[in-house]
Amino acid sequence: MPSLRVYRATDDLAREIVSRFVRFGLVLLGLAIVAVGILIAPYRDRAASRSSSSG
User: Fold this and answer.
1) For 15, what's the count of Cα atoms within 13 Å in the CB-facing half-sphere?
2) What is the 8-class DSSP label of residue 30?
3) Measuring CA to CA, which residue among 41, 33, 36, 39 is closest to residue 49?
4) How far apart are CA 9 and CA 7, in angstroms?
5) Stretch 28-52: mean pLDDT
6) What is the pTM assigned to this prediction?
7) What local confidence, expressed as pLDDT, does residue 47 receive?
8) Mean of pLDDT values over 34-39
9) What's the pLDDT at 9?
């Protein structure tokens, strides 16, 4: 019995487009995590130094 799946050029195009969107989304997510980490880090350091110097 022959395979029911048919190869089409549009399948490749759709896969390419979806993979680019997913890759772009993951890059944005990574950059957002880095940015949040950079923004949070100074505040955490100040809070830690405040609590250790008060003792």
Assistant:
1) 6
2) H
3) 41
4) 7
5) 82
6) 0.59
7) 65
8) 92
9) 75
Reduced to 3 states (helix: H, G, I; strand: E, B; else coil), residue 36 is: helix
The amino acid at 35: A
3-state DSSP percent of the chain in helix, strand and coil, to 5: 80, 0, 20
Tokens at residue 40, please?
């949070």
Token couple for 10: 């549009």
* Per-residue pLDDT reduced to its tens digit, 2-30: 667 777 778 889 999 999 999 999 999 99
With 0-12 / 13-18 / 19 or more C-beta atoms within 10 angstroms meaning exposed / middle / buried, residue 16 is: exposed
E strands, the chain, in order: none
